[in-house]
Amino acid sequence: MMKQNETAKRRNGDTARKPVRHFRDLDVYQNALAAGLSIYELSKKFPAEERYALTDQIRRSSRSVCANIAEVWRKRRYEAAFVSKLSDAETEAAETQVHAEFALKHSYLSRDEFLEVDDAYEKIIGQLVKMIDHPEKWLIKNTRSCP
């Protein structure tokens, strides 16, 4: 419900956003969480013989996107570490896309389900790449002076 209210505000021209104080406030985290939860639900219908293969892999990689974003938030003091962890999140998102494609090819996902998942991860990857390209917007500025 809250997300719908935020969307309505943006449509009405109210683009003021609350400051990001926690990784859960990041749009990319919220998108990754929603996509990961969707993957979990979709993968429930995968066959039992895939339980320790494709099902575990797609769930792990989708959760890893979220976990890496949480870690990214704590790496904001160091640009190289920040960008590296963003890159890890990006690669996990791409890995999830590959697993989803295998699920499509084996008919575990419908074409529409696959496209929805693939589009969600394309958006997430785009958000991550923007952060990689402009880390200065996210880094913590060191305000301590050297003696």
How big is the Rg? Answer: 17 Å
Classified in CATH, the superfamily is 23S rRNA-intervening sequence
The largest β sheet comes out as: none
Overall, the morphology is: elongated
CATH class type: Mainly Alpha
Poorly predicted spans? none
The H/E string reads HHHHH
Average pLDDT number: 90
CATH topology: de novo design (two linked rop proteins)
Q: Give the N-to-C terminal Cα separation.
A: 50 Å
Please give the CATH architecture. Up-down Bundle
Counting DSSP E segments of at least 2 residues, the number of strands comes to 0
List the domain count as a whole number: 1
Query: How many helical elements?
Result: 5
Helix content: 55-70%
Tell me the structural class.
Answer: mainly alpha
Content of β-strand: under 5%
Secondary structure: elements and pairs:
Layout: H1 2-11, H2 27-43, H3 51-74, H4 79-105, H5 111-133
Helix pairs in contact: 2-3, 2-5, 3-4, 4-5
Question: Care to describe what's here?
Answer:
With 147 residues, this protein is mostly helical. The protein has a single domain, classed as 23S rRNA-intervening sequence (de novo design (two linked rop proteins)). The chain has 5 helices and no strands. The longest helix has 27 residues, at 79-105. It is elongated and about 50 Å long.
